[in-house]
Write a structure and sequence with these properties.
The protein contains 8 helices and no strands. The chain is mainly α. This is Kinesin light chain.
């Protein structure tokens, strides 16, 4: 409904309850930090979003295998926070870490792998390296075309990014 402050308050209350009833490194606690980070991101407070996503990652690294898809998700969220703050090299590093984990833990043609290629392409584009961005966008489109319907919004977005990168060369 777009009431992010209210959502944030609810997520913080949930975290408070979890911290009283669960071990501090429980995956549900990490999920609450992730939700708090998402709310901060939706409100445009990217430094607080980053802090929350880093806390979620710290817990996930304690409670999950290092190549678990949820760990990759945290790296992706951290990359998004850095991207939103304009720190594209740090965003790229986080996106690359997410991709590395996804390639270890998911099938190579998984839609989440395509999403990571697209995010890495965006980071390169934002840093002015359109040729490298083109390579990553191409990978994203090739995977998405195999596993998503032609009308899927992610596939459409990947194709738009690829076409824009081609036009700018």
């Amino acid at each position: 409904m777009g009431d992010y402050p209210k959502a944030l308050s609810s997520y913080e209350e949930a975290l408070k309850i979890q911290l009283q009833s669960l071990p501090p490194n429980h995956p549900d606690v990490a999920s609450s930090y992730n939700n708090i980070g998402a709310a901060y991101s939706d409100m445009g407070d990217y430094p607080k979003a980053l802090s929350s996503h880093e806390q979620a990652l710290k817990i996930k690294l304690q409670s999950l295998p290092p190549n678990h898809p949820d760990v990759a998700s945290s790296y992706n969220n951290i990359g998004n926070a850095y991207r939103n703050m304009g720190d594209y090299p740090k965003a790229l590093s986080s996106y690359e870490q997410a991709l590395k984990i996804k390639l270890q833990s998911l099938p190579p043609n998984h839609p989440d792998v395509a999403g990571s290629y697209n995010n890495i392409g965006n980071a390169y584009r934002n840093m002015g390296d359109r040729r490298t961005a083109l390579l990553f966008y191409t990978n994203a489109v090739q995977i998405a075309q195999k596993v998503l319907p032609s009308t899927h919004p992610h596939l459409q977005m990947f194709k738009r990014n690829l076409e824009r990168a081609k036009q700018k060369l």
